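@channel sequence for tomorrow's demo:
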Amino acid sequence: MVTNDPSELDLINWIRHHSQELPSSLVKPIGDDCAVFDPQGMSQLAVTTDMLLENVHFHASVSPRFLGGKSLRVNLSDLAAVGASPYACLLSLGLPNQLTQNYFHSFMKGFLEDAACWKVPLIGGDLSRSESVVINVTVWGNFKTGGPIWRSQAQDQDALVLIGEVGFSRLGLEILQVEDSASLAAMTHEDELVDWARDPFRAQCLKAHLLPRPLVEIGTWMSENGAVNAMIDVSDGLCTDLLHLAQESELKAEIRVDQLPVPEKGWGEITALEAALDGGEDYALLAAVSEQQLAHLESTYPPEFPPCRVIGRFSSGDPAVYLNRSGKREKYQPAGFDHFS
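structure tokens (generated this afternoon):
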């Protein structure tokens, strides 16, 4: 797995000696069979886990530094969707024999840098050999003053609100699939990716795909301010995730295409609208917002947050997604990411 064949203990010790800011409620971090924390005085806990598999969720040419950060960020996006603040995380990592020790160090530096940025310390996990790169991350969060936001609480006539951007990540993937991206593997910083991209649009697409930013602060703010009825993060595709929201709330959802922000252009055979509707891995937030909540958002939503736009509406009826194009309404079959397709 690594040059000079360091043992699992060597790798664990490498992680342990990279200092982290640990929460006061943590009784015992890395070093025993279990990490232990005392939840007394904490609110409800939220927990989520995501698996990333080589050649399913990412290609081997991706920078391990970027991959380390992304593997944590996609989990933090789940916390954002329920309005939870990050607390701590676990990492299980499988690496094939041919990868060097540098790959492990680069991956872990990316992971730990992001863990420090979002104040979510790594408190345990597992390491193993495997046929390909396998990553599994579990993250806990809690609710400091608000409460959890469920998918199932959208109401009839709620506005459909999009926070963040959609479509750019899919276009970034398209760019990587047609370009010689071998040099990406050695990258350690976002500036190198921007230089490699050669123009601002390509850079935006590549950053959206390789270095997505979870909207943790926005999700927490929404929870603390009671600003939405229901919410979900856009990971499998805007329409796919909107259908989940509609099904859980037992409502139909309509997107007004003329109000949907789309990238300025497509790439290859993927149009900008296709990327926005079904691209996936955007990690924006979709929310159901009442008229009263919308008025509150319009007057109090922090200007430094990503754009918050009304793109449609929920209404009573059998759960489904509809597109409204210039007043013509049609039922839409989402074509986003399916883990078993």
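heads up for whoever presents: The chain has a mean pLDDT of 90.
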